[in-house]
Design a protein that fits this description.
The protein is 18% helix and 24% strand. It is α+β, with helices and mostly antiparallel strands. It has a domain of 100 residues. A seven-stranded antiparallel β-sheet has the order 1-2-3-7-6-5-4, with helices on one face. Strand 4 and strand 5 form a beta hairpin. The longest helix has 21 residues. The termini are far apart.
Length: 182
C-alpha cells in the first residue's frame, strides 16, 4: 500500500474517533430516579420524601472504644522524621496500618526508631518481679539489647505493644525519649 494512502487512512480513522467521543455528551439519555433518596442535598431533601429507616435505640458503636493510634510520633521541636516504612518493608504512601518511623533527635543527632510490631506478646509485669523496671507513659516496659547492639524498649499501652530502639542511646535515655511520644 502506498505511504500516502496509509497516512490518509490513519487521518480518517483519527477523525472518526474524535467525532465519536465528541458526540457522546449529546446522545439522548434515559431519566432515572434517584436510587438513594436519603443522600440528596438538604435543599432537595425538603421537597423529596425520605425512604430511610429510622434509627431506634442506642447506637451499637456508642460503647466501642476508639481505635488505638499505631503510629506514635515525637514532637517536631525534639526530632525530625528521617524515614517511614511499613511493617512489611513498604515505603512511600503508607497505608493506615502501623509503620516503622525513624527519627533524628535534634539535640544529639541520634537515630531512634518507633514501631508497633505485629505478632509480639503484650508486655506485662511478672508478679515476682521486685523491680518495677522502666515506665513509658505510665505503663510497665522492658528493655533489652539485641545482637546488633541496639537498645530496645517495649511496652503495652491501650492494648497495643510499641517499641522504640536506638543503637546509641542507653535504656534510661531511650525511656526519656519514649515518654515524649504522642
Amino acid at each position: 500500500m502506498p505511504r500516502s494512502l496509509e497516512l490518509l487512512l490513519a487521518a480518517a480513522a483519527t477523525a472518526v474517533g474524535i467525532a465519536f467521543f465528541a458526540s457522546v455528551p449529546y446522545w439522548p439519555k434515559e431519566q432515572t430516579t434517584n436510587p438513594l433518596p436519603g443522600l440528596v442535598s438538604s435543599a432537595a431533601q425538603a421537597f423529596a420524601p425520605s425512604y430511610k429507616a429510622p434509627l431506634n435505640g442506642p447506637s451499637v458503636l456508642a460503647s466501642v472504644r476508639p481505635a488505638p493510634d499505631l503510629n506514635l510520633v515525637l514532637p517536631d521541636d525534639l526530632a525530625v522524621v528521617v524515614r517511614r516504612s511499613g511493617i512489611n518493608g513498604e515505603t512511600g504512601l503508607i497505608p493506615t496500618t502501623a509503620s516503622i518511623t525513624t527519627f533524628r533527635l535534634r539535640a544529639t543527632g541520634d537515630l531512634v526508631s518507633v514501631a508497633a510490631p505485629t505478632g509480639v506478646d503484650a508486655v506485662r509485669r511478672v508478679n515476682n518481679d521486685a523491680d518495677a523496671g522502666l515506665r513509658v507513659h505510665g505503663a510497665y516496659a522492658i528493655s533489652n539489647v539485641d545482637r546488633n547492639g541496639s537498645t530496645i524498649i517495649r511496652w503495652t499501652e491501650n492494648g497495643v505493644t510499641y517499641e522504640i530502639s536506638s543503637r546509641t542511646l542507653d535504656a534510661s535515655r531511650l525511656a526519656d525519649v519514649a515518654n515524649t511520644l504522642r
